[in-house]
Design goal:
Strand order of the largest sheet: 1-2
Structural class: mainly alpha
Helix content: 55-70%
Length: 659
């Protein structure tokens, strides 16, 4: 007979909460969480369940350990703290049964990461499981290593993982290859241990193993340059595999939209690109299969487009012949005509890389590329603009500059700063002659307005000072433009004021007209009146007025008959609230009082100068890089700013009023 006391019938029995928690299955917990109507209710349920699990962990009951860890993983995915259950994962991994190990490894990968010191405790268990006879247990260990392996763990398990690359089981070989990729990312110097195993895997007939083997080969090539030489001896094997995929019949297991294992094809093409780069012999061996892929792959579905994209990348990356590169560029041209913006974006970015290799082949698609500049998608426009910049040369600068200037008129404001800068630099670099350069820059000032950077204006002024025979032409062109637009285009006003102040006498002269120049009669009174109006306008930014007052002062030496008008205009500025403007006016008035003996040498014409930081290819005699214009300063100096006031934050002041 039992010695335990008997309880009267009807006495309630109290069961500890953690006993109830152990009895609660994961499915029931999920159901309870879904039934919660508010966040507060869900938090209360999770807090109660967490407390119960903590109590269960204190009892060290192994029979419910896997159930508790499964619930902790669910709670972790909901965003609740589960750090108190990390050691349970270590205990489950050390168990002997597969179900416990499966939950333990899953918890290890979800609840922990490589930064946790707890991971060091499982290294020995993982090493034991890698040598386990059950390939599923070995696969669990490899999966865990592939997800949370640290550099220290990688050094410890590298020999075991390398040995598993030669396993008789394809399931283990595949996982070992992927785990090796993680080890190489953590410790690249271990690459020599995996080269032989990776080479052997390239002869495997299993598609999954082949895919992982090619991925491992790519990682080895990235980690060690010597591995590239080793894998080049297997180019014929890779070519044979790729040919078999292209010409193989239908296989339901590997078919994706009518293409045989496009994932493997993409990886093979990527590896061939790496192996063929800089090696003519390897490139020759793969040229036929690359042409085959490019010619026979159907691009109507995304799978085919992915293969074609990698094929184009491989053709461009290896030492291919010109005909093959033209085929690749034509494929990209078809991509540009696609309605899918993603495909067009990829094509534009790839063409930008091809330009450096074969510019002529890309030039055939120039019209399509220019059309992409007007696309509604901002990423397409940005990529197309970048490609157009790369396409510009001495032969097409006039055409493309006109296209870019037309686009500038309708471009979004966020594009205009970069667009005007690029146009100015392309014009300076590839201008066929200086007259065209001047005409185009004046048009850029008109259409770009306040978006034209100060340094571009300074570079243009430098061009004018270095071109005596076109100083009058440039002044008249700026006068014509500024007369109509200076009130809305203050950058035009600043540049025009500077040039008119320096070369006003040349502008009004009639003996320096160039061929086919538009007829325009400008008198000294006209020039002075334009500058006076800039000074008198209350909306003119202070930097424009500073340039205008200095230019008027210089014109007093060029046009003696206008001295009275100049003195009157300068005197009115003497009461300005702007300290810089007031100081300039006061100094100029004192110069007037001293008479011509002082003003004549002070107001002499500025000699030709060069900007500091000018591109080394700049040459004022020959006209720029390659004899086609002027290279523009990479960074604007303070030379003109100190003398003419162009360095007083003009770009910021103009932005609101220009354009």
């Amino acid at each position: 007979p039992s010695l335990a006391p008997r309880l009267p019938l009807g006495t309630p029995i109290r069961i500890a909460p953690h006993i109830l928690a152990m009895a609660t299955r994961l499915r029931e917990l999920i159901k309870s969480v879904r039934a919660c109507k508010t966040s507060a209710e869900e938090r209360a349920l999770i807090a109660k369940e967490s407390a119960a699990i903590r109590g269960s962990l204190k009892d060290s009951d192994a029979s419910y350990r896997h159930r508790n860890v499964a619930k902790l993983m669910f709670m972790h995915m909901l965003g609740y703290p589960t750090h108190f259950g990390q050691m349970e994962c270590v205990k489950l991994i050390a168990a002997t049964g597969f179900p416990e190990k499966r939950i333990g490894y899953l918890g290890l990968m979800i609840l922990l990461d490589e930064r946790q010191e707890v991971t060091m405790l499982v290294t020995n268990s993982i090493k034991n499981d890698l040598a386990h006879r059950n390939h599923f247990i070995a696969g669990l260990a490899l999966c865990a290593l592939g997800n949370i392996c640290t550099a220290e763990m990688a050094r410890d398990v590298a020999p075991e993982v390398s040995a598993l690359l030669g396993s008789k089981n394809s399931y283990v070989r595949k996982k070992a290859a992927l785990c090796s990729v993680r080890i190489l990312k953590k410790v690249p110097e271990l690459s020599q241990q995996f080269v032989e195993g990776a080479c052997n895997l390239l002869a495997d007939r299993h598609h999954g193993v082949l895919l992982c083997a090619v991925t491992l080969a790519l990682q080895l090539c990235a980690a060690d340059e010597a591995a590239v030489t080793v894998f080049r001896t297997h180019v014929n094997t890779l070519v044979r595999i790729l040919k078999s995929l292209i010409h193989s019949g239908y296989s339901a297991e590997h078919d994706v939209n009518g293409h045989a294992d496009p994932f493997l094809q993409v990886k093979l093409l990527r590896l061939l690109k790496v192996l063929g780069a800089g090696d003519a012999e390897a490139s020759d061996a793969m040229s036929d299969v690359l042409a085959n892929v490019a010619s026979n792959t159907d691009g109507s579905k995304n799978a085919g487009n992915a293969i074609l994209y990698e094929a184009v990348g491989a053709i461009i990356g290896v030492e291919s012949v010109g005909g093959l590169r033209v085929l690749a560029v034509n494929i990209l041209g078809r991509f540009l005509a696609n309605k899918d913006n993603n495909i067009r974006y990829v094509a534009l970015n790839t063409l930008a890389k091809v330009v450096a290799v074969d510019t002529q082949a890309v030039q055939r698609h120039r019209a399509t590329i220019v059309e992409c500049v007007k696309d509604s998608d901002v990423t397409i426009r940005r990529s197309a603009l970048q490609l157009v910049y790369n396409l510009v040369n001495e032969n097409n600068i006039t055409t493309l500059a006109k296209e870019l200037l037309d686009y500038l008129s309708v471009a979004d404001p966020e594009f205009k700063h970069d667009l005007t800068r690029r146009i100015a630099r392309l014009v300076a670099r590839f201008a066929p002659d200086r007259r065209w350069h001047i005409d185009t820059f004046v048009e850029l000032l008109l259409k770009g307005g306040g978006y034209v950077a100060d340094e571009e204006g300074r570079a243009f002024i430098q061009l004018v000072t270095a071109t005596p025979d076109l100083q009058g032409y440039a002044g008249r062109a700026l006068y014509r433009t500024a007369s109509d637009t200076w009130r809305t285009h203050y950058q035009v006003a600043a540049v025009a004021a500077w040039v008119l102040g320096e070369y006003g006498d040349v502008v009004v002269a009639r003996g320096n007209r160039v061929v086919n120049e538009a007829e325009l009669v400008v008198s000294p009174r006209d020039v002075v009146s334009l500058l006076q109006s800039m000074l008198a306008d209350v909306h003119s930014p202070a930097p424009v007025k500073q340039v205008a007052v200095t230019s008027l002062m210089k014109l007093s030496a060029r046009f003696p008959e206008e001295v009275g008008a100049v003195q009157s205009a300068v005197s009115t500025v003497g009461a300005s609230l702007n300290l810089e403007l007031q100081q300039r006016a006061s100094e100029f008035i004192k110069i007037f009082e001293r008479g011509p003996g002082l003003s004549a040498p002070l107001l002499e014409r500025m000699p030709p100068f060069e900007l500091k930081g000018m591109d080394p290819g700049f040459n004022t005699e020959r006209g720029g890089v390659g004899g086609g214009g002027h290279a523009v300063a990479a960074a604007a100096p303070d030379l003109l700013g100190d003398l003419m006031g162009l360095d007083d934050g003009f770009g910021g002041a103009v932005e609101g009023g220009g354009g």
